[in-house]
Design a protein that fits this description.
D-Maltodextrin-Binding Protein, domain 2, Dipeptide-binding Protein, domain 3, seven-stranded mixed sheet, 15 helices, 23% helix, 19% strand
Length: 563
């Protein structure tokens, strides 16, 4: 799906980032999750976050924090249901009148646009605009976000987007409201692919380079009023958004203010105190140190705990020195003290230790542990034996990339100490959160290993988990999601078989088997699956965070005049 993020999160490592919970009640396990009540119309919601968004360009951004922001500003042919829906993972029409109509052979998908849809300029959104926006994703500099359309649409191998290569013939626009996609192979979940940010329409000819940032072209209910990188984003209503064409976004507030660069501890203090405008504030995950302080009855009433489908893991670069030997990677899997990493994450309240790639909430999950140890504390003896067999009895040095937030660095230090027990000297390379995923997704600059995360992009599907992370044919010079750079023919063939399987039960079985096959090759070390814990302001209502990403489109204020 997408990399997990800390962009809108107060001091936690997200696990890239679908699920449910409810505030302070036993309903948390069974409902869509969040604070109940219908928001009032009007007012301003303040969003407090520690770090900047990766990109405002939806062809570039591909992480949980910015995806949530995009929902306010951009629309696609198809989108996920609202966070309070019975099934928030369901795909529903957005700019399109209905979900796609596939041909009998599954190679062609056709969509018809709704009447009355416009950009913030007042210009109608046409099929050519949708096509243009989508084909921006093929540009080697711009298209570093969601990769699925590039992987599935039957484009020429040398196609590089509309700015460099012009029109793409395999996406047709026979009239102003019809768009037809030709695929390389059948893909039953193509509706979900079009719900990705990379499916955002752009006016034909616009959006080249970074120029559009000065005047973001909005298709959603809000437009960017002002943007100061690293400091503040202000959103105001898009007067040309028609609520009658949008069944998901309720757009209750009149405005949104995103304040960037606030210390995580400060965010928590402000939300606990709930003074002044902070009654209208939301933020990401509370810090681990704050958990004990929000156990009072008053604070528990507005605490929202959301189980995640996102895996936090260590990606091991199989092209780097000793890590090219499977025995070394297996030794690292044995050596890592996952219980220490769990403590660094915040303990059982925040996360559950993982021994598999697919979390339990993702279709295809099979429970197994190829590298067991007592209390998940690591098996030093087995790790040392494997290192000796590989010719590294005295260990070696490696560099671990890590995000510049407190929890990620604590996790990295736990890994550092774990591997030090078997002679592996780990140096930490700390990278700013806002550029972290771009950096580690560039093979030319990534190091030996990285602590990162991944979430399924839609319907908790393994098809958006295993293929992007381990298909060796998808390794790219930029926007590369296969951080291990694993290129195994048997794994690639199994991915093809899983994607082509139309019987979902059989596909789930196949994905579970592939999960285990991949872990035999040990390209990653699964660490844990995190929960997300939020503390919305006292005047916030309609708070839902399916998958751990706040659904801003249905959030608002109890009292629009309160500030």
């Amino acid at each position: 799906m997408r990399r997990t993020t800390t962009l809108a999160i107060a001091g936690f490592t997200a696990g890239a980032l679908a699920l449910s919970a409810c505030s302070g009640t036993d309903q948390a396990a069974t409902t869509g999750g969040g604070t109940g009540g219908t928001p009032a119309k009007g007012g301003t919601v303040d969003v407090l976050q520690t770090s900047d968004f990766s990109y405002l360009d939806p062809a570039r951004g591909f992480d949980g924090g910015v995806n949530a922001f995009y929902r306010l500003v951009y629309r696609q042919l198809v989108t996920k249901a609202a966070g309070d829906a019975e099934n928030p993972n369901a795909m529903i029409p957005d700019l399109a009148e209905s979900l796609g109509t596939p041909s009998a052979d599954g190679l062609t998908w056709t969509y018809k646009l709704k009447d009355g849809i416009k950009f913030d300029t007042g210009a109608p959104i046409t099929a050519r605009d949708v096509k243009f926006g989508i084909t921006r994703g093929w540009d080697p500099e711009i298209g570093i976000g969601a990769p699925y359309l590039k992987q599935l649409v039957d484009a020429p191998a040398d196609y590089q987007g509309p700015y460099r290569s012009g029109e793409l013939d395999t996406i047709e626009t026979p009239d102003e409201r019809t768009i037809v996609f030709h695929l390389k192979a059948p893909f039953p979940e193509f509706d979900a692919v079009l719900s990705m940010p990379s499916g955002t329409p752009f006016p034909v000819g616009s959006g080249g380079g970074d120029a559009f940032i000065n005047d973001v072209v909005a298709s959603g209910p809000y437009d960017v009023k002002s943007f100061t990188p690293g400091s503040r984003i202000e959103l105001t209503r898009n007067p040309n958004w028609d609520a009658a064409t949008d069944s998901v976004r309720k757009a209750y507030p009149d405005a949104w203010n995103f304040t960037i660069g606030v210390d995580g501890a400060t965010i928590d203090e402000r939300l606990i105190a709930g003074q002044g405008a902070d009654v209208n504030a939301v933020a990401g995950q509370v810090q681990t140190a704050t958990i004990a302080r929000i156990q009072t009855p008053q604070l528990k009433q507005r605490t929202v705990k959301v189980p995640s489908t996102c895996l936090t893991y260590i990606g091991l670069n199989t092209t780097k020195g000793p890590l090219g030997d499977v025995r070394v990677r297996q030794a690292i899997n044995y050596a890592v003290d996952k219980s220490a990493v769990l403590n660094a994450t915040g303990g059982n309240q925040f996360a559950t230790i993982s021994t598999t790639i697919l979390p339990t909430s993702v279709s295809g999950h099979t429970e197994y542990d190829l590298y067991p140890s007592k209390d998940h504390a690591g098996d030093v003896d087995k790790a040392k034996r494997l290192l000796a067999e590989a010719g590294h009895a005295d260990g070696f040095a490696l560099t671990l990339d890590v995000r510049s937030n407190a929890v990620a660095q604590r996790q990295a230090e736990a890994v550092q100490q774990s591997l030090g027990r078997v002679g592996i000297e780990v140096g930490l390379n700390v990278i700013d959160v806002s550029t972290y995923y771009e950096t580690i997704a560039t093979p030319a600059v990534q190091h030996d290993a990285a602590i990162t995360g991944w979430c399924p992009d839609w319907a908790s599907s393994a098809s958006t988990f295993l293929p992007p992370l381990f298909d060796g044919r998808k390794i790219a010079q930029k926007g590369n999601q296969n951080l291990a750079q694993l290129d195994d023919p048997a794994v690639n063939a199994a991915i093809d078989a899983g994607i082509a399987e139309t019987d979902l039960a059989k596909a789930d079985t196949a994905w579970g088997e592939l999960d285990r096959k991949i872990m035999e090759l040990a390209p990653i070390v699964p660490l844990n699956v995190e929960n997300r814990i939020f503390l919305p302001g006292t005047n916030i209502t309609g708070f839902h965070a399916p998958g751990g990403d706040i659904d801003y489109s249905i959030l608002g204020l109890k009292d629009a005049g309160k500030s």
